[in-house]
Design brief:
mainly alpha, 3 helices, about 0% strand
Length: about 80
């Protein structure tokens, strides 16, 4: 069991390192210095279910969601 836990932790560290390095390269290349652009990050290609998508809600929708979580009932915007 210890081996499985150790391998899992090692895999998490390796994945975090790969994401860090590829995101750094993404920033360098996307800066336009080399005339190249990247459309997706490493994490988006290999683990799309773990990547948080950009929140496109308006401020009012976010406030309503927070109030709904606090009060336990849906807040209707007028």
């Amino acid at each position: 069991m210890r081996y499985a836990v150790a391998r899992y932790k090692a895999q998490i560290r390796e994945t975090a390192y790969r994401n860090y390095v590829t995101d750094a390269l993404y920033v360098i290349v996307s800066g336009g210095q080399f005339g190249m652009t990247l459309s997706e990050r490493f994490a988006e290609i290999f683990e799309p279910e773990k990547v948080q998508k950009e929140d496109t809600r308006t401020q009012e929708e976010i406030v309503a969601a927070v109030w709904a979580g606090i009060t336990g009932k849906k807040v209707v915007n007028e």
